[in-house]
Amino acid sequence: MSQTTETITRPFQYDDLYLFIGGEWIAAGNRDASPVTNPATGEVIGRIPHATTQDLDRALDVAKSSFAIWSKIPAYGRAKILKRTADLIRERARHIERLMTTEEGKALHEAEYEIAAAADYFEWFAEQGKRAYGRVVPSRRPEVQQLVKRQPIGPVAAFTPWNFPGITPSRKLAAALAAGCPVIIKAAEECPATALAIARALDDAGLPKGVVQMVFGVPADISSYLIASPVIRKVTFTGSVPVGRLLASQAAQGVKPITLELGGHGPVLVFDDADLDEAATLGAANRFRGTGQVCISSTRFLIQRQSYERFAEKFVAATEALMVGDGLVPGTKVGPLANQRQLDKIDALVTDAVSRGARVLTGGKRIGSTGFFYSPTVLVDVPLEARVMREEPFGPIAILRPFDTLEDGLGEANRLPYALSAYAFTTNARTAVAVGDGLEAGMIGINHFNMINAELPFGGFKDSGYGSEGGEEGIEGYLTTKFISQV
Question: What pTM value is reported for the model?
Answer without folding.
Answer: 0.94
